[in-house]
């Protein structure tokens, strides 16, 4: 279908590229001069009042992380500095697409957001129960989430939009395969793994860096829900996961996860067979084995849901010395978007709320704003530099540099193999798992009105594995002959 209308910004200027954010060279970082990206993300964060735009429905708990292995040669992060050290933490599990009152047992990724209250400030690791994501550039995030929400006229979920977007975004094939597999509906929050998903940078005391990925492995074992049972529970007990987590902790059955990392030398990023900053890809554990870090235990329920779970704010940009960002384009956008969402949803002083406030002393020159409930800095100096012994920067805590090159431009990732890892995952599955995967995709795609959208989406699965795509096409009663030629 032809479209003669130009996409514009909110102030009417035509948009030259709506698929790739502007970066300094092909690996970033993302440029703040990309006003279209900033406007999309800022407007997106303000589309719902007052619940979270995404991850609205969730449950949380308090606990601790205990270090079980010495990783100080990789990072100077104080909370990981010695075996046996315990750091208090708070976690929030969630679904992604549904509203605050939606059911827990729907097919959806689960948010896995952890706040560590370290002695050097808070560190947030804001991931999911999947190691990859649907897209790899933040400029596409508002559009993606719109497809998961409701049609503006009918106010109903819209499978046409879901599969149209996925079919036109082949980078989603890997994550869609995971979502439609048995792992798409965890049995409980306790019976699923967690991942930081993005690539981050660890830096040690000597200033030497490595790239890192986080894996939380559940000690309860991975368990998933049958599709029919999940649907039954959604009607009978829509708060099933919330209830299970609370009751388990209340009776002393404290859930736990082992934390592992994968470590990649900085120079390997230039030669690895997949771009290590592409969040739609995983690193092979044969290439970069899991290294144990610690054990996370949840042992205390919130006293008040609103004060602790609903007002908890997490951002992947909440770093501590020894942990830094990577050029991951999706991560780069989240560094802005999450803090901005919290300023809108909870307020400019959300970091001062008890659930979010750092355990160590906070010293800065931020003043005023809505709901400022402490002494607002009293009569102390309120600007910097100053001559009154106010807090000053510490050069030893500067983030380490990494080289960038190229022209300022809207640049795509260099690597566009969106199918190999999805196909590998399919081929790893048993025949029963493949059958359920195909049935889930066929069932989800059947309501789509357009055969063209069905074919386009199915071709992504065919390119991942011919049997995979063929079985879906047969289930949908469509032909791929023209597309396969």
UniProtKB/TrEMBL annotation:
Tree of life domain: Bacteria
Biased composition, class Polar residues, residue ranges: 1-24
Binding site for heme: 338
GO cellular component, one term: cytoplasm
Annotated source species: Bacillus canaveralius
Family, as annotated: Belongs to the catalase family.
Main enzyme class: oxidoreductase
Active site: 55, 128
Protein name, as recorded: Catalase
EC number(s) stated in the UniProt entry for this protein: 1.11.1.6
């Amino acid at each position: 279908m032809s479209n003669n209308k130009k996409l514009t910004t909110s102030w009417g200027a035509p948009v030259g590229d709506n698929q790739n954010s502007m970066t300094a060279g092909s690996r970033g970082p993302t440029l703040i001069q990309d006003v279209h990206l900033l406007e999309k993300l800022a407007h997106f964060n303000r589309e719902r009042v007052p619940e979270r735009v995404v991850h609205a429905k969730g449950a949380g708990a308090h606990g601790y992380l205990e270090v079980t292995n010495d990783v100080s040669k990789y990072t100077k992060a104080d909370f990981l500095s010695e075996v046996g050290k315990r750091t208090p933490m708070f976690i929030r599990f969630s679904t992604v697409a549904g509203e605050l009152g939606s059911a827990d047992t729907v097919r959806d990724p689960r948010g896995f957001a952890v706040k560590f209250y370290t002695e050097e400030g808070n560190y947030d690791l804001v991931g999911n129960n999947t190691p990859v994501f649907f897209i790899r550039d933040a400029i596409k995030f508002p559009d993606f989430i719109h497809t998961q929400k409701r049609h503006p006229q009918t106010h109903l979920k819209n499978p046409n939009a879901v599969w149209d977007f996925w079919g036109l975004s082949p980078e989603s094939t890997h994550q869609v395969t995971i979502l439609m597999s048995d792992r798409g509906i965890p049995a409980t929050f306790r019976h699923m793994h967690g991942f930081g998903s993005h690539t981050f940078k660890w830096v040690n005391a000597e200033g030497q860096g490595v790239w890192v990925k986080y894996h939380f492995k559940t000690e309860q074992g991975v368990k998933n829900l049958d599709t029919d049972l999940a649907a039954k529970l959604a009607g009978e007990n829509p708060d099933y996961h919330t209830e299970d987590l609370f009751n388990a902790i209340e009776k002393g059955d404290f859930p736990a996860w082992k934390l592992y990392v994968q470590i990649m030398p900085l120079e390997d990023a230039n030669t690895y067979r997949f771009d290590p900053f592409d969040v739609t890809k995983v690193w092979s554990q044969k290439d970069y084995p899991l290294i144990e870090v610690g054990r996370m235990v949840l042992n205390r329920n919130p006293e008040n849901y609103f004060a602790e779970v609903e007002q908890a704010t997490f951002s992947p940009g909440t770093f501590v010395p020894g942990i830094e960002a990577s050029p991951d384009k999706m991560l780069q956008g989240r560094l802005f978007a999450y803090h901005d969402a919290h300023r809108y949803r909870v307020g400019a002083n959300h970091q001062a709320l008890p659930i979010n406030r750092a355990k160590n002393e906070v010293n800065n020159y931020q003043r005023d704003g809505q709901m400022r409930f402490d002494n607002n800095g009293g009569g102390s100096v309120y600007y910097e530099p100053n001559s009154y012994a106010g807090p000053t920067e510490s050069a030893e805590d500067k983030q380490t540099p990494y080289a960038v090159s190229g022209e300022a431009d809207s640049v795509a990732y260099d690597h566009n193999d969106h199918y190999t890892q999805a196909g590998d995952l399919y081929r790893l599955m048993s025949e029963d798992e493949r059958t359920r995967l195909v049935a889930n995709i066929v069932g989800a795609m059947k309501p789509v009105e357009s055969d063209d959208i069905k074919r386009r989406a199915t071709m992504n699965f065919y390119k991942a594995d011919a049997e995979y795509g063929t079985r879906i096409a047969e289930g949908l009663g469509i032909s791929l002959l023209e597309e396969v030629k």
